[in-house]
Design brief:
- The protein has 197 residues and is of the alpha/beta class.
- It has two domains: 1-95, Phosphatidylinositol (PI) phosphodiesterase (TIM Barrel, Alpha-Beta Barrel), CATH 3.20.20; 116-197, TIM Barrel (Alpha-Beta Barrel).
- The chain is 37% helix and 19% strand.
- An eight-stranded mixed sheet has the order 2-1-3-4-5-6-7-8, covered by helices on one side.
- Helix 3 (73-90) packs parallel to helix 4.
- The protein is globular.
Length: 197
């Protein structure tokens, strides 16, 4: 997002140019059943589809598909189910879903258990409850906001067979600190600041 508008083919092309491993994109399920790409609720001007993004990234970039919804748990669950079903049908191992919505992740698991799932959060949940919920939902990863990443969290997550992918990390010193803590993935608006191993 530091180089091109987010959720656009231009931004995904820039990610390729910068040798990124993965991109994140936001998807909404419309009333008509379409899966459209937009950070905020889609408008009549929103035209980019999930399939277009997946087609562009196929074989070149892994894709983190964030399941979006507003004030509607039933809709969140439907979004998770619809996206996971689509991903399973496409048969891509390098694509997974993430969401702030537990119900969206539940919907994804019910519809397509093989599609990996990650919980996104921006607070400090009770660790025991978080890990118990992660285990119950068979999560693959946790996606905490950078402000809530600690070395203890990373160690505990790894002990529970969970990856930790932090967002949004733009400060070079913080990137180095997270790498030293063995954070698995660093989401950044400026991916060129994240050293490649």
């Amino acid at each position: 997002m530091g180089h091109a508008p987010e959720n656009t083919i231009a931004s995904f092309q820039k990610a390729l140019d910068l040798a990124c491993d993965e991109v994140e994109t936001d998807v909404w399920l419309t009333q008509e059943g379409r899966l459209l790409i937009s950070h905020d609720r889609p408008t009549a001007k929103t035209t980019l589809s999930l399939d277009e993004v997946l087609d562009f990234c196929r074989g070149r970039l892994a894709v983190n598909v964030e399941l979006k919804c507003e004030k509607d748990e039933t809709r969140a669950r439907e979004t998770g189910a619809s996206v996971a079903t689509r991903l399973a049908a496409r048969g891509r191992a390098d694509v997974y879903v993430s969401s702030f919505w537990w119900s969206a992740l539940e919907g994804a698991r019910t519809a397509a258990p093989a599609v990996r799932r990650a919980f996104v959060y921006s607070d400090s949940p009770d660790r025991a409850a978080l890990f118990a919920s992660a285990k119950a939902l068979a999560l693959w990863a946790l996606h905490p906001n950078r402000a809530y990443v600690t070395q203890e969290l990373v160690r505990a997550a790894h002990a529970a067979s969970l990856r930790v992918n932090a967002w949004t990390v733009n400060d070079a010193k913080e990137i180095t600190q997270f790498r030293n803590w063995s954070v698995d993935g660093i989401m950044s608006d400026f991916p060129e600041r994240v050293p490649k191993d």
